[in-house]
Write a structure and sequence with these properties.
It is a single chain. Helix 1 packs across helix 6 and helix 3 runs parallel beside helix 6. It is built from six helices and no strands. It is mostly helical. The model has no long low-confidence stretch (mean pLDDT 77).
């Protein structure tokens, strides 16, 4: 629940509070746009390197968004979990659990 509360101010409420998150949403261009916006604003190379949780080369490859015809659900899920991890780290590490 705290992760959903944290995400509520960053993404549309229907995304933040959807059961099982991304799994039950329609996978269309709007969803890709929202996730790519979040990736661009939340997942920077500097943040990934500073946290030391993920392999920087893998993240760099992942955040180069594919052309529309090459998009896959696997890619979308990986991006979503990357954004979710960064949101979790921001809330629980950077803000020490403070929602406001």
């Amino acid at each position: 629940m705290p992760l959903r509360l944290a995400a509520e101010s960053l993404i549309p409420k229907r995304l933040a509070w959807a059961p099982k998150g991304i799994a039950r949403l329609r996978h269309d261009d709007l969803l890709w746009e929202v996730i790519s916006m979040l990736v661009k604003s939340k997942v920077t190379t500097e943040r990934v390197m500073a946290r030391g949780l993920l392999d920087i080369a893998s993240v760099k490859d992942l955040i180069v968004l594919p052309a529309r015809r090459k998009r896959t659900m696997h890619w979308l899920y990986r991006l979503w979990y990357l954004v979710a991890l960064e949101t979790w780290c921001e809330l629980f590490i950077d803000r020490q659990g403070a929602v406001n």
